[in-house]
User: Fold this.
Amino acid sequence: MKLYISPRAPNPRRVQMFIAEKGIAGIAEVVVEIGKDEHRSSDFRAKSPLAKVPVLELDDGRMLGETRAICSYLEGLYPEPNLMGETFEERAFIEMTDRRMEFYLFGSIANCIRHTHPGLAPLEQPQFADFGRSQGEKVREVARWLDEELSRLPFVAGERFTIADITAFCAIEFARGLMKFRPGHEGLANLQNWRDRIAERASARV
Ligand SMILES: N[C@@H](CCC(=O)N[C@@H](CS)C(=O)NCC(=O)O)C(=O)O
Assistant:
């Protein structure tokens, strides 16, 4: 299999971290530089029609896009360690949290950065700066809620590390770089402590 990624892009990082947590070896990484517009080439669009990374090329040549779909596929092929839930009930609750992390945390961070950062202007046209700034406020609302959750839970979906921690961590790291968002500087000590604990995992260094 081949995984198409772009350096510093947070969605490919989610898959890279998932692969590292599972200890999967042998998936070749192919770099598609978003910064050089390589993702919009006709060659890459043949693999990813909406010009997005990551994409997983399967051994039979099929292309699987969308981060969570790629993770579901890899969870099926490599069930251990389990990151998406053992039973239907656990799967549903982990999925609920993962979707909250993806839509309300990651999504608002991405919108804020894409609409306010000059470096993202080539990817996001037109940019709506007011919308971007309002999304930054939503990020802080969600972060305050998550900080409370983490005052009683060790991981975002409960008692153990799951895909939802990967989604949240990659989002917070993206915000750290391009929004200069540091939970600890905003009084969110639980979120900061969780982030620092996740950052110590070997998978966080991919
Ligand atoms: N929903 C997709 C989002 C993928 C996505 O937006 N990837 C970004 C990189 S993190 C991208 O390819 N951006 C290029 C662009 O928007 O032109 C997923 O979950 O994989």
